[in-house]
Every structure is written in C-alpha cells, then in structure tokens.
Amino acid sequence: xxxxxxxxxxxxxxxxxxxxxxxxxxxxxxxxxxxxxxxxxxxxxxxxxxxxxxxxxxxxxxxxxxxxxxxxxxxxxxxxxxxxxxxxxxxxxxxxxxxxxxxxxxxxxxxxxxxxxxxxxxxxxxxxxxxxxxxxxxxxxxxxxxxxxxxxxxxxxxxxxxxxxxxxxxxxxxxxxxxxxxxxxxxxxxxxxxxxxxxxxxxxxxxxxxxxxxxxxxxxxxxxxxxxxxxxxxxxxxxxxxxxxxxxxxxxxxxxxxxxxxxxxxxxxxxxxxxxxxxxxxxxxxxxxxxxxxxxxxxxxxxxxxxxxxxxxxxxxxxxxxxxxxxxxxxxxxxxxxxxxxxxxxxxx
Length: 349
Ligand code: DNO
Known about the structure:
Layout: E1 2-6, H1 16-19, E2 25-30, H2 43-55, E3 59-64, H3 70-73, H4 79-95, E4 100-103, E5 115-119, E6 125-130, H5 156-166, H6 171-191, E7 195-198, H7 217-226, E8 232-237, H8 238-242, H9 249-256, E9 260-265, E10 267-272, E11 275-279, H10 290-299, E12 305-308, H11 326-344
Parallel strand pairs: 1-2, 1-12, 2-3, 3-4, 4-7, 7-8, 8-9, 9-12
Antiparallel strand pairs: 5-6, 6-11, 10-11
Bound molecules: D-mannose.
C-alpha cells in the first residue's frame, strides 16, 4: 500500500507544501477538472500538472477522474469516437507516469448528498444523505444549486434532456454499455500499463429515477469478470459500499483480490433506510470496520494506492466539503497506523 492525497490543482485551498508535512504521503491523486467531458486531455496541461506535483515532492500516481461521457452510458452511435478519445487520454496519462485511473459509470450524477454541513456533537460538520429529501430537490434549476455534482454541472435544460434519455436505459442495458466500453478501454489501458479502477456508485442505489448498477460486491465481481484483463479493476470505496449495510467490505476485498486497484477509505454511520452521514475514519465512529478492511488488504497483499477519503470540517476550516486538509490529514495518520499494525500482526491460518 502507498499513501496518496487528493489534490484539486492550483486553485485548491489545500497546498502541496502542507501535504508534505503529513508523514507517509507519497502520491497525489488529481485531474484536469476544467476539460469538458469527452475531450482529449492536452499533453502540455498534463505535463504541467505532473511538474507541479513533482516539484512539490510527490509522484503523480493516480488520476481521479477521467469522466465517461453520458453518450457512452446511453450507448449512442457517437460513443465509438468518444471511446477512441478516452483511450487517447489514457495513453497520454501513461506518458506522464500515471499508473492508476479512477472513473465511474454513474449516469448524470456523480456522488450525491442532501446535506453538505450537518453539525456533529463535537462541533464539526459532515456530509449527510437522506433519500426522502431528494423529493425536495428542484432539478429544473440545474445541478449547480445545492447538489454536489462534482464532475458535471448541467443546467436545467440539459439535465431534463438527459433524465429523459436515461428513462429508456434499463439496468441491464447500462451493463451492456459498460461492457462495450470496457472491451475497448481495458486493452488500451493494459497496453500502456495503466490500471483502471471503477468507483462504486455513491450512494449505491438509483437516484432521481436514473439507474445505478455498481452497488455491491456482486456487481464489482461482475465488472472484473466482464473483461479478463489485469488492467480491469476496482476502486474499493469503503464509504460508498458501506452505506448499504448488506455490503461486507472486507469480504468484497478478499474476493476481488488483485483487481483492487485503488482504495478510498472513509467511514459512514447508517441511521435509517437509505439514510447515512459521514463520520471520522475510525472503526468506532461508524459502521465500517476499518481494522478488518486493513486485514483484508494485508491478506490480498495490496500494493496499490490508497487515500483518505472525505473528512469532516474541523477547527474552523472552510472550503470544499469533504476535502479540507485537517480531517483528511488525521484520517491519513490513522490509516497509516492501521497499516503498520496489521503488517506486523502475526497472521493465523
Ligand atoms: C467523491 C469522489 C467521487 C469520485 C468519482 C470517481 O468524493 O469519491 O467523485 O471521484 O466518482 O469517478
């Protein structure tokens, strides 16, 4: 395992020189966030990003995300050109030394929360989700307004068009579109030594009537079985999977084995049916047994990148919800400590 930190680039309020002071962090997870989905990422922008990261003392090890265009998820004829462009971006990532690519296959919406600053008893704030509150969201105003849709920012009109288009895409059809995509993208990634890491849907159920398929261990096994390439793997996000109590994350890790390409570690507390909030990373704070997650990672001899996922907002920090410096740094130290402990633990048969 090697530790990474997600950094959003030059306009991130979190700066690389502070990340240097978090012991154990070797790599940066980043992306070109301003390139419209579907366009090939420019070489000069990628090398610029790599240079900045290396000057800061880190490796540019992971890209999160290279977003998949909605027309690929819809299976439209234009997908062939879009997939070719996706493969070209992958080749360029390899040229700047990136080894892992995290992406998702959630239609329209990326991760969704209904409260970005729920107060916790300790005076911090955290993000929360309550499925019943989706009914109060006015989608005619587009996504910029109250919904954290990080990869895309469709206006009301575009959103209405997409919601309509996905109405005729069943879960099975979405699976077919994923297979079509992977059959073309996995060989391209394999040939340039990039490991794909599909992120589970967050939350792991349908939102706003749009299908979501990457919701549990069975789905993740289906993904890796679809295209038998060592490049075709998974981001195991403990928080996304953990918001569905039936998901046994350590067992999922053991079954996926060498196809776990990237780890996102955070904790959640499930407080009702399709209702949860994020907590500190510790096992005792939420429903994810982080120690058992780490034992599973040790047992599969995980050598890939890991990052501390969403933190609370603590010590008065403001900024991008979930992505401040302080609580992610605390989380990082906890994860580093768990790794040290499980690595030294005697393994019983
Ligand atoms: C949220 C992130 C997601 C993730 C994408 C991966 O904090 O985990 O936005 O980056 O879903 O494609």
